[in-house]
Amino acid sequence: MDGFIAIGFFQSVYRDSPFLRVQILTDFPERFAPGNAVYMEFFDAAPKKFKIEESYQDKSGWLVKLTNFDTPELCEVLQNKYLYVPESELNPLPEHMYYVHDLIGSEVIIEDETVGTIQDVLQMPANDVYAVLLHSGKELMVPALKDTIHSFDRVAKKLILSKKKSFFAYED
To answer: Contact 126/105 with Cβ under 8 angstroms?
Structure first.
C-alpha cells in the first residue's frame, strides 16, 4: 500500500471473543491504544480506516478489538490482514536510527564503490544486521553498529560503510 507502513498483523481471533491477536511490527506499541486508527486493505481497494476500541497485552502478545467488530464471526474476516498507518504519521526517530522500510533497497557503498543493495534487516537481540545482496550474487551480513556504518542518507537511499573494518572483505 503506497504511502502506508505496516505496524501489525492480525494473526487470529482470540478464543471466543471479539479480540484479535496481533503480531506487533513496530517499536511503538502505543499505536494500538484505544482511540487510535489503523488501516487495512481489502480486495485492492483504497485502505479502510478502523478505530481501536480496546487493547491490552497478555503473556503471549497484544490483543486488539476494533469498533463495531463485536463478535468472533465478524472478526474472522480480519484474520491474516496487515494493519497500517499513513507514512506521514510515523514517529520521528532519534539520530542514527532508521525505519526498516528506509533501509530496504538502499545501495551499499564501500570505499566509494557501490557493492550491493540491502535486501533485509534482521532484528537480533544485540543489534540489527543488514543482509546485503552483492553484485556478485553473494550475500554480505553487516552488523548495524557505529563502528561499521559511516553514514546513511535516507533520501538518497545510500549506506556508506566504514573503511576501517577489515571484515568487509568480499569478492565481487
So the answer is: no
**pLDDT tens-place string over residues 112-133:** 899 999 999 998 999 999 999 9
- HSE at residue 129, side-chain half, CA atoms within 13 A, is 10
Taken in order 31, 34, 35, 38, the sign of the CA dihedral is positive
* CA pair distance 80, 70, nearest whole angstrom: 18
Q: What is the pLDDT of residues 140-154, one digit of tens each?
A: 999 999 889 999 999
Tell the burial category of 54 from Cβ atoms under 10 Å away from its Cβ (0-12, 13-18, 19+): middle
CB 132 within 8 Å of CB 140? yes
The three-state secondary structure class of 146 is coil
Bridge partner list, 22: 10, 62
pTM to 2 decimals?
0.75
